[in-house]
Amino acid sequence: xxxxxxxxxxxxxxxxxxxxxxxxxxxxxxxxxxxxxxxxxxxxxxxxxxxxxxxxxxxxxxxxxxxxxxxxxxxxxxxxxxxxxxxxxxxxxxxxxxxxxx
Amino acid sequence: xxxxxxxxxxxxxxxxxxxxxxxxxxxxxxxxxxxxxxxxxxxxxxxxxxxxxxxxxxxxxxxxxxxxxxxxxxxxxxxxxxxxxxxxxxxxxxxxxxxxxxxxxxxxxxxxxxxxxxxxxxxxxxxxxxxxxxxxxxxxxxxxxxxxxxxxxxxxxxxxxxxxxxxxxxxxxxxxxxxxxxxxxxxxxxxxxxxxxxxxxxxxxxxxxxxxxxxxxxxxxxxxxxxxxxxxxxxxxxxxxxxxxxxxxxxxxxxxxxxxxxxxxxxxxxxxxxxxxxxxxxxxxxxxxxxxxxxxxxxxxxxxxxxxxxxxxxxxxxxxxxxxxxxxxxxxxxxxxxxxxxxxxxxxxxxxxxxxxxxxxxxxxxxxxxxxxxxxxxxxxxxxxxxxxxxxxxxxxxxxxxxxxxxxxxxxxxxxxxxxxxxxxxxxxxxxxxxxxxxxxxxxxxxxxxxxxxxxxxxxxxxxxxxxxxxxxxxxxxxxxxxxxxxxxxxxxxxxxxxxxxxxxxxxxxxxxxxxxxxxxxxxxxxxxxxxxxxxxxxxxxxxxxxxxxxxxxxxxxxxxxxxxxxxxxxxxxxxxxxxxxxxxxxxxxxxxxxxxxxxxxxxxxxxxxxxxxxxxxxxxxxxxxxxxxxxxxxxxxxxxxxxxxxxxxxxxxxxxxxxxxxxxxxxxxxxxxxxxxxxxxxxxxxxxxxxxxxxxxxxxxxxxxxxxxxxxxxxxxxxxxxxxxxxxxxxxxxxxxxxxxxxxxxxxxxxxxxxxxxxxxxxxxxxxxxxxxxxxxxxxxxxxxxxxxxxxxxxxxxxxxxxxxxxxxxxxxxxxxxxxxxxxxxxxxxxxxxxxxxxxxxxxxxxxxxxxxxxxxxxxxxxxxxxxxxxxxxxxxxxxxxxxxxxxxxxxxxxxxxxxxxxxxxxxxxxxxxxxxxxxxxxxxxxxxxxxxxxxxxxxxxxxxxxxxxxxxxxxxxxxxxxxxxxxxxxxxxxxxxxxxxxxxxxx
Lengths: 102, 989
What we know:
Largest sheet of chain A: 4 strands, antiparallel
Strand content of chain B: 25-35%
Helix content of chain A: 10-25%
Structural class of chain B: alpha+beta
Oligomer: heterodimer
Largest interface: A-B, 32 and 24 residues
Shape of chain A: globular
Structural class of chain A: alpha+beta
CATH superfamily of chain A: Folate-binding superfamily
Number of strands of chain B: 47
Distance between the termini of chain A: 40 Å
Number of domains of chain A: 1
């Protein structure tokens, strides 16, 4: 497979280490009342669909960027590649707008 | 037997072989001569050899079936010694002078094979034989049945010698990959090459031209082979085209990536010095054209597997390209017009064609050759080579025709393997009576020529140009259509015919000995789905992967079930298209080069000291340093421990992972990574840190030294250096993207040494430049700082201890590591300094009760390790929440303790389990286990670390250590894990 790195262009998948469901970026708040249950779900109940999937890849043999790759797990078609840090920052910004108190 | 045969009795006129370049070769010990341009198959045929192998199961005598890579029968062993290679198809083995080939799967000789007895018991050895016969008694399978079957089965033998040749790997990029250089492939490459696209043209053959090389019919006014030569010449001078002959594209992978093997030196006795035998190419293509032609299918009839019975197209190839005929008289048996061309070509070359047997009552006449229309072949004779065929005429009478060979054709199947590698399903073409590629092709893939069902030469040429035009237009090229010669354009004329009714033994899969009867048995036992049929009968599961057999067999199944062929379906193909040598897949990653070897900067120095090295991941680390007179490793290790504890020792700890953490939020970031807190660590201090996985289990420990408010240096264990760095980047980028922090691995930037023992400071004071005060007051336990050594060399000093002694770790830039080691050893001479290896390091950390990899084994928590209080409740960190799960915090949880044998002379087996002093020994009564054990020269007894339920509350209690694997049992006492200096006075001295 070829992953179109947002900074480095097309790179062979062999340069990357695979982690899985990008839901791992949505780490629960540790002092939440239901933290234990939330962390359990966060860690163990991950998505693994046959079809479109947002997943984390680490460019270990490259620039060490974590990427969010949207990939069809059936056809291996790659629909979107984003820098995980950009995704995480956007998520934080969105959360702040929704819950200004946190 | 050993006389040189120079009589090429079956050599014809013409062809693409060079009679001016004779080549000598051997087959089964007999010497022969062939010509340059021959394959082993064509050379043997020219020499009148028909018998070339034995079948897999029945050991039936077999000769060539085909002329190409689909060959199921003529599998041979090539070469000798380390270069011996089994299971090579004689049809693709390019002849060279001195080639030594042998038949296989026979004993004692090809003519007299004892295992041919299997053929007599064919009635018992039907499909499913193994499953039905070797079921009982169950215990017999592994010890008796399987070894016997394994011995009887199998094809060629592997050499026991190492392969002396190198194999290489390479990467290629192109706009258009063209697979196959027949008429379609050449037209495609020409079109794309002239349009200026970057083209790779690969063909498994050593000559370009594909089927053009085998056909006598010209292209307009030029011979097919000559046209191919002209195109090749034009392509060869184009800078944008790369031609790869002798290259099999064996797999179509994701995103336009193809795997290919180039056989650089299989056509010579040995590769040139420094050159590879084969190269594995990974080809990145924007578009690809599959122009792999078609494969002819046999007809199943009684004893249709005798040497001399071949595919009609193959016979034509041998006659036209290689100027060889399997016999002086050849009968044709077919259901289509194409095979009639074989009759005409043979006759033109002076080969006797007694008759063309065509199953079609309305078959067209062939001038000058007897046509037996509406007839079928019902039997053949000749055990080691065909002698005659028996024909059932249209009128029902039988006629025996003497002949040395039979050319059969049941039609042609598009060779579509590469279109299926992404689970593409072929579809049935009712006009061609064959499967053609479906719509669900791999991304960027086009199919041209016979592979897509364009069966005539003319159609193939045109489809090649068309597909190239389409593919390149997608990429934005302007593609002028090339002028192509007018070629043969006969329509496919064929009446489907798969097998002669009433045959008892009619072969479908020649290599795996699957007959029509086996398919009937599968049907009878309800294995009617194609995937079941395949597995029940082993159809298509041999090294040829059913290239000549799959469609015929499922046609028979379709007939039995009363379904159509498309309803019956087809199996699909996986990579590799043809077998790929393991050596090619391994490339240069063999032996010592299987993985990189990492050496520390002072490795050469350690070698000079005669160090014994141990592999730790990719690193080589000194395990101990034997002195003259020391004959056992324990002598060296005990001495290193004693010398260090008495005076001073030096250990190379460069392999520890080192990560530089910088930024305003560096401390907050480390708070997130480590279970314990780092925010309040003062500048100039080091702290031990424990990392958890998110599930709460401990996975790595190390230290973090604060060199400045915004600068930490983190160490990890050697084993986890890569993983810890990956996880830190995950936290930085994915969880804490707004933190101001940067990371970089500096493992290879610094050489680092532990200097331990009561005289460690005295030694270092001779190295460290005098302006730096490292006295106990100025530089106490857990201090750190940036210093200079040896008159200005930049260094870092950490006062940390893994041994329990007064100890430091000192780091210098990598290039000074060797020099520093030598300087320290010279400076330490006055103190009787010793270098120590990983064994002594291990002994001293067990004596001090420090956990290491054996204890952080992926199942233990901070609580188990006795570090429960380190998990801060005041801050979040990876693993914090889940480490508080109920099940991980029970009162009787395993705790780290020290263990000592009650009888001091006994040694403790690491991995042994702990049981109550008396009572049952089983999992239900398990009290814990031993993780680390060593002989302590300091205490003069064996000691160990382990986990025990209840842990430290049970100090003084005696338990039984059991090792049922070696029937060991001994009494041990639970003691404090801190065997040496429990109060920590030494390390603060």
